[in-house]
Amino acid sequence: MTRRIANLTQGTFVRIESSPYSDWGVGKLTDIQGGLARIQFFDAPGAALPEAVEVALSHVRGAMLPVQTRVYRRMQGGRWQVGRVQEGEGPILFVQFPNGETVNVEAEQLEVRWSRPLTDPLPLLVSEATETPFLADARSRFVRAVARQHFAAAGIDAVLCSAIDLVDYQFDVVRRVLTDPIQRYLLADEVGLGKTIEAAIIVRQYFIDDPSAEAVLIVPTALVYQWRRELSARFGLGNELDDHLHVIAHDDLDRLSQVIGSAGMLVVDEAHHLSRQSTAGQHQLYALLESHARRVPRLLLLSATPVLGNAEEFLRVLHLLDPVVFPLEDLEGFKRRIASRQVVAEVVSTLVPQNVWGLGPDLERLLENYPDDPLLVTKVAALQQVLNTFPDEESESFLAALDDLKTHLVENYRLHRRLLRNRRAAVSWATPRRADMRPVAFTGQATATWRDRLETLRLAATAAGSLTPPIEQALLQSAVNPHASAPLRPALAQAGLDHPDLLSQAEAVDHAAQRLRDDPARIIALCRQVRALLETPGTQVVVFCDRPEDADRVAQALAGQVGDRVVRHEPVEVDEDGEVTAPQWEQFLAAPERIRVLVCDVRAEEGVNLHGGRKVAVHYDLPASPNRIEQRLGRLDRYGTGDPIVSYVLLDEANADEAAWASVLDHGWGVFGQSVASLQYLIEATAGPLAREWVELGTVALETQAQQLGGEDGWVQREVRQLNHQDGLDAMANREIPGMETLEDEDSDWVEWRAAFKALAIEALQFHWHSEGEPGAPSADTPFRVGYTYRDSGRTTLLPLTGFLKHFLATVDQHAAGGSARLPLTQRYAFKRQTTTSRRGLAQGIRLLRIGDPLVTSLEQFCANDDRGRAFAVWRVDRQYEVSDPSGADLYFRFDILVRPALPSEAPEGGSGADDPSQRLHTQALVRKASTFLPPLALRVWVQGNGEIEVDPSDLLTSEYADSWKGTRRDFNLNVRRWRSLPADIKSTWMRDWAGLCERQRQTAMATVRALPQYQSRLQQALQACVQERRLRRSQGDARASRLAGAAQEQELEELRQADAMYAALEAAIAHPHLELDVVGAVFLASDSPFDE
């Protein structure tokens, strides 16, 4: 809190408002000369004063010290006394000191720690300014717990603190992006594998890393609500929406133009849509993105579109990613590049251990086609040499050489090394599989008449000739899905087919189609099937209709038979302020035991996720496009657990075309058994010819296409094989993800994490614990809130309120039940991941408490900046203890040491590069990459007073602090009075050169850490992994650069130079890490107490 003071005087507490000192906290004004103010900051009792700062007086403001601010007063004899501000401002403060002493003190006599981290707590012990071991133990337990989380997350906090399942391949994608100083990536996972989750983790990490983050997400209109909901419910970014985080529809050019200029990150979902230049709006959007994509330091493009198909569209996507390597004017070169990969793509598909005896010809093909790739030639030769020893398929040397060659091919012949793609085939466990199609047969009363009239019209149209493709499509649509077909007479007339007989026949078909739609037979059959399905407990049914009118009729009919267990899907409505009310149909997901049926129309085929549990699809009708069926089933088989998806299809036995079309979908495309999302270009290519052939041949055309598409040698499998070859080069390897097991193990240890958090926040710092449910067993996870408490509540939080609000503001829920201005409460939290990812947890917005969450971050800042718990001293009595030292007490020092790579700060202050986004991004990637090699390591060393290492400390030495008698044992915290009361023999033995003794034992502890086998092996492993990765990066980069030319080659070489510099810095940081003293303590072991109490 700052204020303007007309006459700042010497000794006044002040803050500096100019960079880089604005975050340094409170200092003391010591002098004013010629418009310059001299400010002295204070680090800690016993520590050297930081160098004084001189700034313009106009940048200095008086600082009020809020209640509970921690202050220090130097007493006679040099000892320090610690107190807390209770009241007052200006030159006189009312301060509470230990043992109930509360007095008025002149501000000039007090000191306040600045807001920079306390890097060395040893001066606190030297100057006897120690705290109770209770605080040190609570803080140490918390610090060790968060260190383990940082170790597991490897610098990607957002993975742990988001309400998502931990998935290895998603973690791998996120880690690749965030450890790269150039964060421009195309995330190309196949449909349903979680590109949204991957991108949202990266967005969340951006907001964790950068307080000034500004991100713009550009998504299809139908997905705006889904993105906003996910970012809020799962990733805790609801407070950022519309202020610093914008989710904008593809067609909202006006709003996008207003915010894109300040974006530090761009995320483009369904990026392939933007490459289709069929409308003026798409042209404008692409041009806008192209102009800003070059500038923005973070760019994520999301698209599941395969490389094969429309090369021009894919080139436009890659051009946004890397305009140097993929210039728009070189479409022919891009096509040649795709074609040239075919040999490699085919060979990669054969590089499997089971093919050990058949690899020879494929290796020769590689040598024939790529003789100018020296690394490839070397790796092929190495594999051939192993093959000459006639290995079996499990031979370690064979598997290593095979994997080495395959890795080289995949990494160097992929279209772009920042294209990341996971395939369903490699992670088949990640999504529920599709089971099969089961027909639900019935006979419509009006179908025969309608079909006769349509067949008459088809023959007449064939005779008329010159039908346009839209008319052919309209006729086929009418044949296979009469319930959703548009009237044919207006379509024919508009197309210029105005022969009276033809129009009359079309009108007859339209009248018959309306009677068919009014026929209740289809709805009766559907209701019968749904009732049968609901007899299986836990089953939920999703009914898909094409037209909203049909969905309304179906929902009404089902409601009459199954009551309020059915709900109708409706699009999300956004009010004029952009606020969204959760739609009623979401109860289908939130209350599956109560709402069993969801009825959807075409508007639910995009932007709605219905996966999880036991879901069944019932298709009221079948649209005339396999892509539409894929969209429907894609709502149900996205990432997550769930039973296989069975599709029930209503088929009118009086309509042969409907049954034949169902066969095309099932036996031809196989859409009810597997995703056909990657086949979209083949689907588009066959749609026109099929419509034309149906007009000429009728039902036979459908039956013929089912045969052409299906089977091992059918069109579908041929396309799949070709896609598999090409995708195999761009897909990420199906391998064990390093660090994933550690991440899962640490995340599952939530009971210990809960204990560590509560020990510091609730028991030591006196925050309020507000349970949101009935207390359960220790293994139960009850949602809770954390609150700040005032003195008048009987329990006082031991932090200044202003500090609490500053760091905790992002967590405060102003609408929390039980909260108030006198008791601000946080959002709901839980410790167990499954609590937050459950339907109930997501519906209630329960956050997962882990590193990365502002609440934990604020406590980490407290641990770094506050001296409480950093140094302790205790006189520990055990009446049965045998003292060895003649002084009457044995002395032991405890040193808690953190080992970290010796890297620069993530947020440089002042100096070159502080405000450079690319430099800041490079530093963050460097720190994160270092964490993957050498995560923080917490070690504890006990040193005897005589300098000997206590290798195996006793239970007496390591037991928890006890300030009352427990049998023969009790602890006495060495406060100011007790330090003064230590026996003379203790003072003459241990305290004679106390500062020198403390420093010598610190050096002993540091030397012990450096000699530990655990420390040395960890450094050796980290350095070896870093060197290996550096060599691989260099060899791959050289190989890529050799196949490039001009600006593209220079760009690749420049990235290689930057990578070399990064790895050199990493190797130096790992070889000579920082050893930070986190906590220091002194324990005097004695058999009696020298204190009169």
UniProtKB/TrEMBL annotation:
Cross-referenced Gene3D superfamilies: P-loop containing nucleotide triphosphate hydrolases (3.40.50.300), Tandem AAA-ATPase domain (3.40.50.10810)
Name of the molecule in the record: RNA polymerase-associated protein rapA
Enzyme Commission designation: 3.6.4.-
Residues of the Helicase ATP-binding domain: 176-324
Gene: rapA
Organism lineage string: Bacteria, Pseudomonadati, Pseudomonadota, Betaproteobacteria, Burkholderiales
Native species: Comamonas testosteroni (Pseudomonas testosteroni)
SUPFAM superfamilies named among the record's database cross-references: P-loop containing nucleoside triphosphate hydrolases (SSF52540)
Pfam families associated with the record: Helicase_C, ResIII
Domain of life: Bacteria
Keywords linked to the UniProt accession: Hydrolase
Keyword Hydrolase assigned: yes
InterPro entries, sorted: DEXDc_RapA (IPR057342), Helicase/UvrB_N (IPR006935), Helicase_ATP-bd (IPR014001), Helicase_C-like (IPR001650), P-loop_NTPase (IPR027417), SNF2-like_sf (IPR038718)
Occurrences of domain Helicase C-terminal (ranges): 529-687
